[in-house]
Fold this sequence. Notes:
It is a single chain. The chain is mainly α. The chain has two domains: 11-247; 260-484. 68% of the residues lie in helices and 0% in strands. The protein contains 18 helices and no strands. It has helices at residues 11-42, 46-63, 67-78, 82-98, 102-126, 148-164, 170-193, 199-226, 234-237, 244-247, 259-286, 299-306, 310-321, 325-343, 346-370, 392-408, 419-437, 443-464. It is globular. The chain crosses the membrane at residues 21-41, 79-98, 105-126, 150-168, 175-199, 205-223, 258-285, 325-343, 350-370, 390-408, 415-434, 446-464. It holds the Pfam family PAP2. Keywords: Membrane, Transmembrane, Transmembrane helix. It comes from Dactylosporangium siamense. This is Phosphatidic acid phosphatase type 2/haloperoxidase domain-containing protein.
Amino acid sequence: xxxxxxxxxxxxxxxxxxxxxxxxxxxxxxxxxxxxxxxxxxxxxxxxxxxxxxxxxxxxxxxxxxxxxxxxxxxxxxxxxxxxxxxxxxxxxxxxxxxxxxxxxxxxxxxxxxxxxxxxxxxxxxxxxxxxxxxxxxxxxxxxxxxxxxxxxxxxxxxxxxxxxxxxxxxxxxxxxxxxxxxxxxxxxxxxxxxxxxxxxxxxxxxxxxxxxxxxxxxxxxxxxxxxxxxxxxxxxxxxxxxxxxxxxxxxxxxxxxxxxxxxxxxxxxxxxxxxxxxxxxxxxxxxxxxxxxxxxxxxxxxxxxxxxxxxxxxxxxxxxxxxxxxxxxxxxxxxxxxxxxxxxxxxxxxxxxxxxxxxxxxxxxxxxxxxxxxxxxxxxxxxxxxxxxxxxxxxxxxxxxxxxxxxxxxxxxxxxxxxxxxxxxxxxxxxxxxxxxxxxxxxxxxxxxxxxxxxxxxxxxxxxxxxxxxxxxxxxxxxxxxxxxxxx
Length: 489
């Protein structure tokens, strides 16, 4: 993968040079294979077309009749989707940036953005149509060659592997390489099984991906060489072996007992919170079929419905969307990545995961039991599969921003820490008003979300103790930056 110059004359570097030449030959071979595939696709070479169509028809006959296989292949395929890989790269880049590994962050961004540029432009240039099968089970957007899932999954997962490989113990590195290789192979196969790509599309995506990631890694290694550092074996040591300590998720620390008590206490807290929601929600759902005027439950939705306008409607759409599952998941991923990178402790991340998973399960369970009708006005978001009580949007928004404030506030004295408590109040208010404006919730649904959030957050904070590693006396002065978070050891 890397050019090694004659003045690296030591025996170890001679061995490295030989392996580098083999790797460079391999990358050149994959680039040549991709070029030949483009030519074959453009001229519609009959032997390749025959194999492509035969495999597409055979796999469609084998997979389409089985709902299980269709669902399985769809799930595997989503692991190569833009949404999943974009968040993996964002999380990875966030971690290495906070750890001050700027070149590794640049490598991640450059390789993945390059793949995003190559995929659509080549699809347009080649212009190959997707397979037409007897029993379609999935639909792909755009042209067929090369397979974007195959190309970008190879680039993304390999780039993440090369960056974070030094953080793994040596005995686990080969396992990681095998796992990544198997995952990329499964994603490519899933695109064939779903009938949205030909075999040559997938092979073309893989060959271009190998060539591109090889080129980027070679450039990275040449930079190391010109800085006078040794040339590495990336699939054995990673791109930056010296960064191993910085790349490890956490620092070594003493393990504290009490995990069993925390789990048992969490289950008990969940049950009592669920009970409180059911006790509050069931009478509201039964009174006037859920539309009684308890605490203005009927007055408020009707007032909002009578005062709707285009401008307020657009504002309410944004307010509703910032509390939906996808937005909360995105915010949670960023908070989790920043917490792990800056604090270097698992406890804050566990706190975040338990809080949000508990909120989701409490909302779904209580909504299923209470089964309260939506307000008897126009529901601007249409029919919803869940009950009106409690509001999942509001509960999730309260907890995600409150969790961020809980984690950040004790770890810095900088002025910007005040932003998070403000957001922990302002964001839920915006979401709550938007949901009521759109006719999706009663005021007491919002009250139920507040009860859920307060009880569950307090219980998890008391059990997990996410700030147990913080000593206020050791905090940096107010001028401290984000990297000062978690300096107390």
